[in-house]
Design a protein that fits this description.
Blueprint (H helix, E strand, L loop, with lengths): L10 E6 L5 H13 L5 E5 L5 H12 L4 H25 L3 E5 L2 H11 L4 H12 L6 E6 L2 H7 L12 H17 L4 E5 L4 H12 L4
Parallel strand pairs: 1-3, 1-4, 2-3, 4-5
C-alpha cells in the first residue's frame, strides 16, 4: 500500500510600509492558525537562517547600490526558501513570512525607482514555482507610519518621506494587480479591531 501524499502547506506573507504595525499583529495571525491545530513556521525577510540574518545586518546598515541591494535581498530569500520555507511547505506545515518578494517590488522598484525587470527576473530565477497563497498588507499613510517608529531607524526607515510614499504606492499597485491574493488592513484602526479582523480571517481560511 502506497504512502498517502502529503498536501503542501499554505504560504502566508505579511507586508507593509515601515511603521504600519504589521510586526505586532503577526503573533495574532500565528496564534489563530495554531489554535486550529495547524503546525506553523514563522520566518522573516531578509533573514530566517543564520546566513540570511548576516545578509540582513548588511542590508539594514551598510550603504550600497540599488542593484547590490536587490541581489542581496534575493540571496537572503534563496537561503530562506532552501532552508526554511520549502522544507516546511513540503512537510505540510504552514509558513508565515514577514515580507517576501512583494517587498522587493515595493522597495527596490518603486522606492528606489529601479527597473521592474530586475525583480521579475530574480523572482523567476529564485521561486518561479512558488508564490504566496495569501498576503496581508498593513496599509497606512506614510507620514503617520514614520511617526510611530520610536526605535533607532535602519537604512530603509531613514529614507525620506518621498521614498516611503513611493513604497506605499508600490504596494497598492500590487493589490490592484492581484486583488484576490491580498487582504488589505487599514492600520489606522485600533489594534483590537485589527486583531479581531485577522482572527476572523485566519480562523477559517485555508
Amino acid at each position: 500500500m502506497s504512502e498517502q501524499k502529503i498536501k503542501r502547506g499554505r504560504f502566508i506573507t505579511v507586508e507593509g510600509v515601515d511603521g504600519a504595525g504589521k510586526s505586532s499583529q503577526i503573533q495574532v495571525i500565528a496564534e489563530t492558525i495554531r489554535n486550529r491545530g495547524i503546525e506553523l513556521v514563522i520566518t522573516r525577510e531578509p533573514g530566517g537562517t543564520p546566513t540570511a540574518e548576516k545578509i540582513r545586518e548588511i542590508l539594514l546598515s551598510e550603504p550600497m547600490s540599488p542593484k547590490c541591494e536587490a541581489l542581496l535581498m534575493f540571496a537572503s530569500r534563496q537561503e530562506n526558501l532552501d532552508k526554511v520555507i520549502r522544507p516546511a511547505l513540503a512537510a505540510g506545515k504552514w509558513v508565515l513570512c514577514d515580507r517576501f518578494t512583494d517587498a522587493s517590488y515595493a522597495y527596490q522598484v518603486y522606492g528606489r525607482e529601479q527597473p521592474k525587470e530586475w525583480v521579475d527576473e530574480l523572482s523567476d530565477f529564485v521561486h518561479h514555482d512558488l508564490q504566496p497563497d495569501r498576503t496581508v498588507l498593513f496599509d497606512l499613510d506614510t507620514d503617520i507610519a514614520m511617526k510611530r517608529l520610536e526605535r533607532k531607524l535602519d537604512r530603509f526607515e531613514s529614507e525620506n518621506s518621498e521614498f516611503h510614499k513611493r513604497v506605499r504606492k508600490g504596494y497598492l499597485k500590487l493589490v490592484e494587480e492581484q486583488p484576490d491574493r491580498f487582504l488589505v488592513v487599514d492600520s489606522s484602526k485600533p489594534k483590537e479591531e485589527i486583531s479581531q479582523l485577522l482572527q476572523e480571517e485566519f480562523s477559517t481560511w485555508d
